[in-house]
Amino acid sequence: MLDTSWNPGAVVLPGQSGPTAVAVMNDWVVLETNAVPADTPMSVVAINQADASRQFSSQPFPALPLRQSWSPSAVTVDPLRNRIFALDGLAGRIAALELRDDGLHTVWTVPHRTIEFLALIGPAQRRVLVGTDVPPGQQVGSNTNDWVVWRNAETGDEIARSPLLQAVNGGTMVEPAYAGRMYFLAENGNIIELTVRPVRPGKE
C-alpha cells in the first residue's frame, strides 16, 4: 500500500538541481543531486525507509574549480559494507562514503572524470570499483575517448587501466560478466571485452 505519511521534504539545497534515480541500501534510499549542471556542489543524501525524518546529507566535493557540478548517474551502493560510491563529472572526482549511525562519512576521494554509472564487483572483503575515465583535454559529456579504470573500493587506489578506447555509449556503464570479464559498450556500436591480467615482470 502507498504510505502517504512517508515524506522526506526538500532534500535539494539552494543552487542544486534534482537527482536522477535513487538506490536502495538496506533500510535507506540514497541519491546524489545535480542531475543537470548546477552552481552548488552536489550532495549525497540518505533517507530512512521507515522514518523519512531520519536523513543525512553530505557534500563530498565541496570545492568546484569550474564553478559547476554535474552528477547525472545514480550512486552505486554496497549494502554489505554500508558504502556509497558517488561521482561528479565537472568536479572531476569520485568518492566512497560510509553510512554510520551518526551520518555519512567520506572514506576517500580521488581524481576521476566520469558521468557514467560505476560498477561494483567482487566479494565483500575485496570489492573492486570499475568505471570510465575521460582523458585530460576532453570535455566530460562530449568526449571522444575513455579509459576504463579498476580501483580498490576500500582505498580508491588504481589497480588497472585499459588502453584508450572510443567513448562509451552515454548513460551506460562498464558491464560485469563472468570470470572477471567486463563489457564496454562503445559509442560507435562496438562491444569490447576487457579482462585484467597480472603484469609480467619487465612489462608495463
Please explain how this structure is put together:
With 204 residues, the chain is mainly beta. The protein folds into 2 domains: 11-111, no CATH class; 114-198, Thrombin, subunit H (Beta Barrel), CATH 2.40.10. Helix content is 0%, strand content 37%. The protein has strands spanning 23-25, 28-32, 44-48, 55-58, 76-78, 83-88, 93-100, 103-111, 119-121, 128-133, 145-152, 158-161, 165-166, 175-176, 182-185, 191-194. The strands form 4 sheets. Strands 9, 10, 11, 12 and 13 form a 5-stranded antiparallel β-sheet that branches. A hairpin with a 2-residue loop joins strand 7 and strand 8 (103-111). It is globular, with a radius of gyration of 17 Å. The mean pLDDT is 93.
List keywords for this structure.
204 residues; mainly beta; Thrombin, subunit H; 2 domains; 4-stranded antiparallel sheet; globular
Gist?
The chain is mainly β and 204 residues long. It is built from no helices and 16 strands. It has two domains: 101 residues, no CATH class; 85 residues, Thrombin, subunit H (Beta Barrel).
Q: What is the topology?
A:
Layout (H helix, E strand, L loop, with lengths): L22 E3 L2 E5 L11 E5 L6 E4 L17 E3 L4 E6 L4 E8 L2 E9 L7 E3 L6 E6 L11 E8 L5 E4 L3 E2 L8 E2 L5 E4 L5 E4 L10
Antiparallel strand pairs: 1-2, 2-3, 3-4, 5-6, 6-7, 7-8, 9-10, 10-11, 11-12, 11-13, 14-15, 15-16
